[in-house]
Structures are given as structure tokens and as C-alpha cells.
Amino acid sequence: MDVRRRKLKTENDDIFEVDTKPRIKKGHPGKRYFVVVVLLGILFLGYIAIAYDLKPVHLGSKAIDTLAFSFNLQKPFYVVVIDAGSTGSRALAFSFHESILGGNLVLDDELYTDIKPGVSAYAEKPKDAAKSLTVLLDKVKGVIPQVEWQHTPLSMKATAGLRLLPGHKAQEILQECRKMFEDSGFQISKNSISIMDGTDEGIFSWFTVNFLLERFATHNPGNTVAALDLGGGSTQVTFSPDSTQEKKLDGHVYSVNIFNHNMSVYTHSYLGMGLMAARKEILTHGMNLDNLNLKDAIEVRSECVNPIVSTEWNYGGFNYLVKGPVNGTHKLVKTQNFAGGEVDRPIVNFSECLKIIEKYVGRIKNKPEGLKDHEIYAFSYYFDRATEVGLVDPFFGGIIQTSAFLKQAMDVCDYPNTDQPFICLDLTFIYILLRDGFGLEPTTKLYLYKKINGHELSWALGAAFNIIQNGL
Ligand SMILES: *[C@@H]1O[C@H](CO)[C@@H](O)[C@H](O)[C@H]1NC(C)=O
Ligand SMILES: *[C@@H]1O[C@H](CO)[C@@H](O)[C@H](O)[C@H]1NC(C)=O
Ligand SMILES: *[C@@H]1O[C@H](CO)[C@@H](O)[C@H](O)[C@H]1NC(C)=O
């Protein structure tokens, strides 16, 4: 989790094996992994503090802390993380305090606030990208006392949305954001406004989930859970393999020091396999947009969209008019009324749509072997789509089998619904990604949650700890 190791590497996001840079060399015995050592010693204290915090038996110590708080003996401190994602920007303001009992670090609260669209939507107007973030900054300022601003580190990490933009456009956006944050009164540094690579994103998310679930207590890889994060532009698979699994994995394994123990962590970020990036490729069949007039919506027709749909969709600064196929598939359905007649219902031809999606997901060659042996926590878009079709409760989350995504996909594809024009495509993509991309079985369980113990599942908490450890 040390940002400095980043300089040792080249690209981390790859779905095409030919793009893989030489960090993993096949046929080099003993050099199969790019081993990176990361120090997180201080976090050990943090972990103990949180573990105490959650266990009733330790309520006594918490009560003393709380008392100290009310007498103003303890000062809270804050870390602000801005997640500039491809579909939206989110601000998380974490507050911690150092416990009077042994100086442990205790995570108290977090403010979560978000806006849409993401900064990458302002590719042509970088100043507006920065302006869009001031709403978030104002909310953050509302929860952190002004006297603390100058001591509060602020970090903005952009993810796949900016990774997918041409380099100079991404840099212009970052430049404008940096200017805005320099005037904010918060502590920033040279590196605090940047594009985060997929490896950090994966490791930070994995850290957050396992930390909140208290899975680091034994440092046994078998006790940790796998983290599946489905963003807009990219998707990450991260878990700690045991030594036999590690042998089967072709690279992407890092040695990460968690609470003074080295753990092997596999993380792979698949650029272009985020839900929105995949949707765009599936809808457009990889159409080249370079020479198109930006003012007009680009009309695309897709087998994965119901024939009655005609809807506008914005992604990556382009505006699409999305329609179903010209001669769409219909299905005769018996009506419920007394006449017993039949209606001609327009549907998505599921097998046709499936072929397109299987072809796209088939680009993933490097499967995460051993993933299905872990408990798998899936969040972000996995969670959102599952709740939208009633697979899990939006407040409590839940556990499903991956085949539940397939069943729901087939149901929704068979029904015209202009309110959710992409739900058929999205659910089918998610299922095929899990099955073909990651090698999961229909019966593999997925734990779908948005929050654990009141804290958002995202890479931001991991990133905040990294700042506390290594500075901005
Ligand atoms: C972690 O691994 C590095 C080498 O990869 C080693 O130098 C270090 O001592 C190890 N730390 C622990 C706590 O085992
Ligand atoms: C749609 O069907 C009509 C009539 O069967 C046919 O003439 C036309 O070529 C078809 N269009 C496409 C795009 O398949
Ligand atoms: C879907 O499309 C295929 C190939 O065009 C066709 O053979 C099949 O009958 C279609 N399915 C339905 C339900 O119409």
C-alpha cells in the first residue's frame, strides 16, 4: 500500500495479454512475481483499536475514550479522500482519534457524499471538472472544523475514467483540480492529486473489506476474503492466495505488508471491463469515434437492447442514441384476459446478445485461478444492479449464487422496459464476466454489501490509511 512502489512498475491494467509488460516473465523460475514490499506497521495499532471498538467486552475502554472526548482531552484528526470515478465523484471525510489507552488509532466517522457525472465527462472543459468538485468540498468543509483544515490531508485519486482519456486531456483536468484544491485550505502535496493505478485500487479495496470484517487477525490467507469491485471503467479482482494457488497464478501477485506480516496478494485490474466501458463497447461494437462530430448524438443499434427502446446515453464525453435492432425479435405471449388472445411482445433475443457479450468478455485471458476458493465480497455496481432487480436488500445486502444473475438477466431480457433500457445488457455482462472472465461456477456464492459496520466498501478507506502511514 505504499505509493512509492508505483515507480517501479509500468502498466497495471491489461485485458490483452500482448499488452502485458515484462514485469511477469514466463520461463524465469523464481522470478514469476513482481515482489513489492509495503509497510503498514502503524496500521497494526489501528486494527487493534477498531477490533476493540467493535467488541462489547471492550466497551469499558471505549467509554473512557468517549469521556476523554467530552472533556476535550483528545483531538480528532481527519483525512479527506476524493474518488474521481468514471461515472461520478465521491468525497469521503474520515475522522480518527488516537485513543488515550496506548495511543491506538480509532476510526470514528465518515462523511460520504457524491455527484454525477465524473470529471472525465468534462474532457473538453477541464475548468468545469474542477468546478463540479466544489460542491463536494463544501460538504467536507461542513463537517471538519476550519482550524483543522490546514492539518488535514486531502487526496484526489482518479480511476479508470481518466485512465481511458487521452493523456493530455486527463492532465488538464488534474491540473484544474489541483488549482482548486490548492486554494481550499486543506493540506495537499505534489502527488496528492493524481491518477491511481488499478493495482492500488484493488489492494486498497481488498484492505478495506478485510479490515472492516476483522479478517487480518491471524494473517492466514485462508481467513481473508476476496474483493470484487466493479467500477464504471475498470474492474478489480483481489485476494490473498495460499501457496498452491499462488503457483497457478500467472503474475499479478504482490507481497504486501499488513500489520507487520507479509501477505501475498493477487490483484488484477481489467481496464475496459468496468460496467459502463463494457456497455459502451457492447453497444458500439468497438466503433471508432475519432472522426465523428461531437455535437450529434451517435446512433447505435444493439441486439442487447429491446426493440422498443430509443434512449440517449452519455459516456466518456460522447452522447449516444441507443436503439434496439431494426427487425427486433418478438415473442407471442398469452394474455390474461377472458378472450385468451395472444400479444406480440418485443424482446431481446437473449442468445444473440449473449454471443456479443461472450465475445467481448473472451478478451480476458488471464483468469484469477483460486478466486472461487475464497469467500467473495462483491460491491459497487455488482451490488447496485443486484438491488435494482431485487436480488438483495438495498439496506442489508445479502448472499446469492452467481446463477441468480443469469436467471434475472433472462427474465429482464424477455420484457420490454424503457425505464431500465440497459438492465438486460448489464446483468448479462455481469454474469458472463463472473463465469467466463473469472471462472466462477453457477453455484459460487457472492456476498453483496455496500457497507460493513457503517463504513462504505470502497478503496477510499484503504487509501486514507495509506496516507496516515506514508504521508500524502
Ligand atoms: C517481508 O518480506 C521482505 C522481503 O520480501 C523481508 O525483507 C521482510 O523482512 C519481510 N517482513 C516480515 C515481517 O516477514
Ligand atoms: C428487416 O426486414 C425487412 C422485411 O423482412 C427487410 O426487407 C430488411 O432488409 C430487414 N432489415 C434488416 C436490417 O435486417
Ligand atoms: C434469435 O436469433 C437467432 C438467430 O438470428 C434465431 O435463430 C432465433 O430463433 C432467435 N430467437 C428467438 C426467440 O426469436
UniProtKB/TrEMBL annotation:
TM spans (from-to): 33-52
Residues that, per the record, bind ATP: 232-236
Pfam families linked: GDA1_CD39
GO molecular function, one term: hydrolase activity
UniProt cross-references to InterPro entries, sorted A to Z: GDA1_CD39_NTPase
Keywords: ATP-binding, Hydrolase, Membrane, Nucleotide-binding, Transmembrane, Transmembrane helix
CDD domains: ASKHA_NBD_NTPDase5-like (cd24046)
Active site feature: 201 (proton acceptor)
Family: Belongs to the GDA1/CD39 NTPase family.
PANTHER family, per database record: ADENOSINE/GUANOSINE DIPHOSPHATASE (PTHR11782), NTPASE, ISOFORM F (PTHR11782:SF127)
UniProt name for this protein: Ectonucleoside triphosphate diphosphohydrolase 5
Taxonomic source organism: Melipona bicolor
Lineage: Eukaryota, Metazoa, Ecdysozoa, Arthropoda, Hexapoda
